[in-house]
Amino acid sequence: MAHLEKYLHENLIEAGCDEAGRGCLAGPVFAAAVILPKNFYHSLLNDSKKTNEKNRLILREIIEKEALAWAVAKVDAQEIDQINILKASILAMHKAIDNLKLTPEFLLIDGNKFNVYKQIPHQCIVKGDGKYAGIAAASILAKTHRDEFVLQMHNEFPVYQWDKNKAYPTEFHRQMIKNHGITPYHRKTFKLFEEQLNFSF
Predict the structure, then answer these.
(1) Residue 133 in 3-state DSSP?
(2) Would you place residue 72 in the very low, low, confident or very high pLDDT band (cuts 50, 70, 90)?
(3) Beta-carbon neighbour count of residue 79 at 10 Å?
(4) Secondary structure E strands in 36-105
(5) Chain mean position to CA 163
(6) Residue 2: pLDDT above 50?
(7) Which helix (H) or strand (E) holds 16?
(8) How many CB atoms lie within 10 A of CB 180?
(9) Is 184 helix (H, G, I), strand (E, B) or coil?
(10) In the chain, which end has fewer C-beta atoms inside a 10 angstrom radius, N or C?
(11) Is 14-180 a CATH 3.30.420.10 domain?
(12) What residue spans define the domains of the chain?
C-alpha cells in the first residue's frame, strides 16, 4: 500500500466509493463506500483489479473489521436496462453511502462521473482505486461482494460458467448466450453477442 494516499483531507470524515461489474453482460452492478481510520495501513491493499482473489478475500475481512463504516449496495440488471449502466453505477454508490452508519463529510469517487449526493462535497479521481486507500478499500468490497453474488448466479445457471468468467463478455459467455439464450440476470441493453440480429428478448 506504500503508494496509496491515506486521505485527501486530513480533518474531514472521508468515504471512498467504487463500483464493480460495470462492463459485465449479466448480473447487478455493485458499489461500496468505505470510511477508513486515518492511520489505516495494510501492505496488500491496492486496486482490486491488481489484487488476486486470495488477497482480496483477506483484505475484505480486514476492511470490514477495521473500517469506521462500510456498506455495499447493488442495482440489478432490470434497472440497469431502464436507466443505463452509468446512472446505475452512480445510483449503487448513492445507495451504499445511504447505508453507512457514519455520515461522511467528503466523498472520494473512483472515475470521472458522479451526481451530487445530499450536498456532500466530492472529488472524482480517475483510477482513484490505485491512488487512495479509501477508494481501493471500496473497490475490494464491491468486487468481492459482487463475485459472491455471481457464484450464486452460476449455481442457478451453470452453463454460462460465471464462476470462471464472472459474467464478463468472454467469447465462451457470448457463445453460450447464442446456444441457450438469456437469463433474467442478463442486461438486455448490452451487446450480448457480436451479431445481435434476429434475436428476440
Answers:
(1) helix
(2) very high
(3) 16
(4) 69-75
(5) 17
(6) no
(7) strand 14-20
(8) 11
(9) coil
(10) C
(11) yes
(12) 14-180
Q: Do 47 and 57 touch, CB atoms closer than 8 A?
A: no
Whether the pLDDT of residue 194 is over 90: the answer is no
Handedness of CA 105, 34, 25, 28 (dihedral sign): negative
Strand segments, DSSP code E, in the chain are 14-20, 29-35, 69-75, 106-110, 122-125
pLDDT band for position 1 (cuts 50, 70, 90):
low
Residue 174 CA to residue 63 CA, distance in Å, equals 35
For 147, the grid coordinates are: 463475485
> What is the mean predicted confidence (pLDDT) over 6-22?
96
User: Three-state SS for 116?
Assistant: coil
Neighbours of 93 (CB within 10 A): 31
Q: How far apart are CA 58 and CA 117, in angstroms?
A: 31
Q: What does the pLDDT read at residue 57?
A: 97
Please tell me the number of Cα atoms within 13 Å of 124 on its side-chain side. 11
Please report which confidence band the pLDDT of residue 67 belongs to, taking 50, 70 and 90 as the band edges. Answer: very high
Q: What is the pLDDT of residues 104-125, one digit of tens each?
A: 999 999 999 999 999 999 999 9
